Amino acid sequence: METTERFRALEAWYRGLYPKDADPLVMVSGDASFRKFYRCRQGILMDAPPETEKNTEFIKLSRLLNEGGVRAPVVFAADLQQGFLLVSDLGNTTLARARNPDNEALLYEKATDLLGNMARIPCADLPPYDQAFLDREAGICLEWYFEKGEGHPLKGEELKTFNRMKDLWSQAFLEQPVIAVHRDYHSRNIMLLPEGSLGVVDFQDMVRGPLTYDLISLIGDCYYEMPEDLRERILSRAYNMYKDSGLISGVSPELFRKWCDFTMLQRHVKCIGIFRRLFLRDGKSGYLGDIPRVMRYIRSCVSRHEELTPLMDLLRDTEYGRN
Questions:
Q1: Per residue in 67-117, pLDDT tens?
Q2: Closest-CA residue to 275 (of 262, 284, 264)
Q3: pLDDT at res. 209
Q4: Helix axes 228-244 and 253-280, enclosed angle (nearest 10)
Q5: Nearest to residue 148, comparing CAs of 319, 323, 34?
Q6: Please, are residues 65 and 121 in contact by the beta-carbon 8 Å criterion?
Q7: Could you tell me the sign of the dihedral formed by the alpha carbons of 245, 248, 251, 256, in that order?
Q8: With contact defined as beta carbons under 8 Å apart, do 144 and 240 qualify?
Q9: CB of 121 within 8 A of CB of 181?
Q10: Alpha-carbon span 62 to 204, nearest angstrom
Q11: What pLDDT is attached to residue 4?
């Protein structure tokens, strides 16, 4: 059992809520942030330090998602000053844990269909995934992948080349229809609920952004490489879903695929920087093992678009770009 001062404060807060009906707290997990999760009879207790976590946003977005037909943990109680929340329990079964060769096509089809609900959620009040946001995320790769990870900051012609590539993915990114975007819609954050439907967690960073972003998070999962035939099947299903809804009226399958490729490139260039930052700054080495998979996604996108070849030239001589 934990005995840290923060755990004792969380336990005291919980017992204050249920003085006659409190359980011993059982840690469920931590994640890539500084949050920790504990299960109790009444739900899940979140230890989310207010200096690092977006707790106000979590509460607001929980309500927005549930009202929009996307199941998310419901917030029962919160102490924003301490960073403690009690939320409903969606269980332990993530899509990542539930999938197997027999059911993964059905699960990913359900996850794709849920994106149709996400697209209908009002997004006007969400932060914009705009050019300034794209520039900041590109900076994560420049700082943490190249400069601090490789000891090789990009300067001169190399930096100009990187910025030309950023301009290409930014153009494709920003010309897409804008919807509510989860930003981490992948198999570890999608929950399989007891009745067979799906829910989401880890949504506190939602923005309004490009139509294909969450789809790319799903089929370009940093932690799992789905079979190629299933990826193509999901892409086709998503295209037809968005077309039937009127979101991409007049958009050809070829343009939709280009949007997907360039959005995947943007996401994964950012991710190789984030994963190195988690190691170098936060001491979390487990994500380094995911960089080769992410690099394969990058290569795949570049291989379909000749104008992106200079990006791979920049990455080829780095630790994770050589193979």
A1: 999 999 999 999 999 999 999 999 999 999 999 999 999 999 999 999 999
A2: 284
A3: 97
A4: 120
A5: 319
A6: yes
A7: negative
A8: no
A9: no
A10: 8
A11: 85
The residues near 261 (Cβ < 8 Å, ≥ 6 apart) are 301, 304, 305
The whole-angstrom separation of Cα 77 and Cα 85 is 6
Residues of the chain with pLDDT under 70: 1-3, 30-33, 323
pTM, to two decimals:
0.93
Q: CB of 258 within 8 A of CB of 307?
A: no
SS (H, E, C) the chain: CCCCHHHHHHHHHHHHHCCCCCCCCEEEEECCCCCEEEEECCEEEEECCCCCCCHHHHHHHHHHHHHCCCECCCEEEEECCCCEEEECCCCCCEHHHHCCCCCHHHHHHHHHHHHHHHHCCCCCCCCECCHHHHHHHHHHHHHHHHHHHHCCCCCHHHHHHHHHHHHHHHHHHHCCCEEEECCCCCCCCEEECCCCCEEECCCCCCEEEECCHHHHHHHCCCCCCCCHHHHHHHHHHHHHHHHHCCCCCCCCHHHHHHHHHHHHHHHHHHHHHHHHHHHHCCCCCHHHHHHHHHHHHHHHHHHCCHHHHHHHHHHCCCCCCCC
Q: Which two tokens stand for residue 309?
A: 């070849």
Query: So what's the pLDDT on residue 35?
Result: 87
Residue 84: closest CA among 19, 22, 17, 31 = 17
What is the pLDDT, as a whole number, of residue 198? 97
| Structure tokens, 221 | 């999962």
Predicted local confidence at residue 228, as pLDDT: 95
